[in-house]
Design goal:
With 22 residues, this protein is mainly α. The chain has 1 helix and no strands. InterPro entries: N_methyl_site.
Length: 22
């Protein structure tokens, strides 16, 4: 799979992890 950038789901996951760590 050739993917450029993040998908909306991946962005939400990263934001959720950062929110938990913050």
């Amino acid at each position: 799979m050739n993917r450029k950038g993040f998908t909306l789901v991946e962005i939400m996951i990263v934001v959720a992890i950062i929110a938990l760590l913050a």
